[in-house]
Design brief:
By secondary structure, the protein is α+β, with helices and mostly antiparallel strands. It has helices at about 15-25, 40-50, 65-95, 95-105, 105-110, 170-185, 190-195, 200-205, 210-220, and strands spanning about 150, 240-245, 250-260, 265-280, 290-300, 315-325, 350-355, 370-375.
Length: about 375
């Protein structure tokens, strides 16, 4: 197309018109095509500008896309706001989530949940201090060293048997297994915990020990301070207490030593059991823990030398330490103290004792009395 040299923006003469003009000029006919006037060119330019397409419309997003994208951004912002508000609400309800993270308590709590290896020797010191969090129905061992202990019978590990004191490896292995069965029945069996007769445990004892068996039976039917079934069995009144969950934490060890005389071997057991309880009433939520440590010596003897029954065990000696159970109550049941209990009996006194401390023997503590605890 040719353009008007005087107005590069004005309308141009078409090639067809220019060719027709040249033919007519050669034959002497016709008129030269006239350029549009300046006004006409202005009107044409305005019309052209009015119908022009938006600059870049082919490459830019369509208005539907632009509007949709705007809504998408608003939705994202709205969702982020909802999450933020929910986070604030959670922090308001459980501020410890943020506090624990900032103070490093969360990391310590995670470490406190790591299972401990089995105890193979007497510890040299009590467990390290942990954050004194209160137990809850969901986490009844929170704030306790027992959080790292084994659950139930898994915490009573039987060592490899060896011939000891003139007793064969097989006899020792059987005695170790019977000792574990007794501990499980006496301290972990739900029926025993409910106060029922610990028949499975009693069945393991040598029937030839008539006096001992009679004394144990008497403790179950008529408990006294001197003959309390809690010396051997863990029991509560179902009308008063119920377990907080179905887990009892256990830690300890078992080993074998020669007996006092030839043809005898002693199975030594030293275990601590941690029981979380709640009151047996509707809506009860406060959790209190009772810690029971038992040191028991089971004996076996060669029936060819001693009056012993094959496959049965003797109770040679036993000591118990009950932490967080009412003092001067000898009815054969545990009575942990809750915050809403009215004070009864003697007031705990003396230097607070750590019931989780397994570095000392039970009888090395202050005998009797009503001592105070450093933690439960």
């Amino acid at each position: 197309m040719r353009k008007n040299d005087n107005d590069s923006d004005g309308p141009a003469i078409s090639d067809e018109e220019w060719a027709r003009f040249m033919e007519q000029a050669e034959t002497g006919s016709g008129q030269a095509p006239q350029e549009p006037s300046a006004r006409a060119r202005m009107v044409t330019a305005r019309l052209r500008a009015g119908s022009a397409e938006p600059q870049g419309w082919r490459t830019g997003p369509a208005w539907q896309e632009m509007q949709g994208r705007g809504r998408g951004k608003r939705r994202i912002k709205a969702a982020a706001a909802v999450v933020f508000i929910a986070a604030l609400a959670l922090i308001a309800v459980r501020p410890e989530l943020v506090i624990d993270k900032v103070t490093g308590k969360a990391e310590r709590n995670d470490k406190a949940r790591e299972p401990l290896p089995a105890e193979t020797a007497r510890p040299s010191a009590p467990p390290s201090a942990v954050d004194p969090d209160r137990p809850t129905l969901k986490e009844p061992f929170r704030g306790s060293p027992a959080l790292q202990w084994a659950d139930g019978a898994a915490g009573i590990e039987v060592p490899e048997a060896q011939a000891v004191g003139g007793m064969s490896k097989e006899q020792v292995a059987d005695a170790l297994e019977k000792a574990k069965q007794f501990l499980v029945s006496a301290n972990l069996d739900p029926a025993t915990l409910r106060g029922e007769r610990p028949a499975a445990a009693l069945e393991l004892l040598d029937p030839k020990l008539k006096d001992e068996l009679s004394r144990v039976e008497d403790s179950l039917t008529a408990p006294t301070k001197e003959n309390d079934p809690l010396h051997l069995f863990t029991r509560v009144k179902p009308a008063e207490l119920k377990p907080a969950g179905d887990v009892v934490k256990v830690r300890g060890r078992m080993w074998v030593e020669p007996g006092k005389e030839g043809g005898q071997a002693n199975v030594q057991a030293d275990y601590t059991f941690v029981y979380p309880f709640v009151k047996a009433k509707a809506g009860a939520a406060e959790v209190e823990r009772t810690i029971v440590r038992r040191e028991i010596t089971f004996s076996i003897a060669d029936p060819r030398k001693w009056q012993a029954t094959v496959g049965k065990i003797w109770l040679e000696k036993y000591d118990v330490d009950l932490a967080n159970s009412a003092c001067d109550v000898y009815d054969g049941y545990l009575h942990p103290v809750f915050s809403d209990d009215a004070p009864t009996g003697p007031t705990p006194s003396g230097t607070p004792v750590d019931p989780y401390d397994r570095s000392k023997t039970v009888d090395s503590g202050v005998p009797g009395g009503c001592g105070s605890l450093s933690r439960t």
